[in-house]
Design a protein that fits this description.
It holds the Pfam family EF-hand_7. It comes from Irena cyanogastra. One of its GO terms (molecular function) is calcium ion binding. One of its GO terms (cellular component) is endoplasmic reticulum. This protein has 94 residues and is an all-alpha fold. The chain has one domain. It is 70% helix and 0% strand. The protein has five helices and no strands. Helix 1 packs across helix 2. The chain is elongated, with a radius of gyration of 19 Å.
């Protein structure tokens, strides 16, 4: 179920939910459900849920790229050369 939590909440948010009491978890989930319900009709449609999951995943991708970029851009010039990529990925062996 951990992947489901991450897809629905995002990796960091899912991690924070693990630390909450059941009551706190329900309260925060209720607030998230309110944010998912775009038209505020009290129901979540499959389209609203798909939109939410896409938004969460997109945010995760952007955050992850920014985090990983630092590991690959070894000379910190905001570009990743093929040599930097190979070195960061495979080490000094190639």
């Amino acid at each position: 179920f951990q992947y489901d939590h991450e897809a629905f909440l995002g990796k960091e948010e899912a991690r924070s939910f693990d630390q909450l009491s059941p009551e706190e978890s329900r309260e925060r989930l209720g607030k998230i459900v309110d944010r998912i319900d775009d038209n505020k009709d009290g129901y979540i449609t499959t389209e609203e849920l798909k939109t939410w999951i896409k938004r969460v995943q997109k945010r995760y991708i952007y955050e992850n790229v920014a985090k990983v970029w630092k590991d690959y851009d070894l000379n910190k010039d905001d570009k990743i050369a093929w040599e930097e990529y190979k070195q960061a990925t495979y080490g000094y062996y190639l």
